[in-house]
Amino acid sequence: MRYSTKCRYALRLMMELALQPAGESVSLNEISQRQQISLKYLQQIVIPLTKAGLVSSVRGSQGGYYLTKAPRQYTTGEIFRAVEGSLAPIPCLEVDDCPRKDGCRSRQFWAGLEQTVNTYLDGVTLADLLQQPGQL
Question: Residues with Cβ < 8 Å from 32, sequence gap 6 or more?
Answer without folding.
Answer: 38, 39, 42
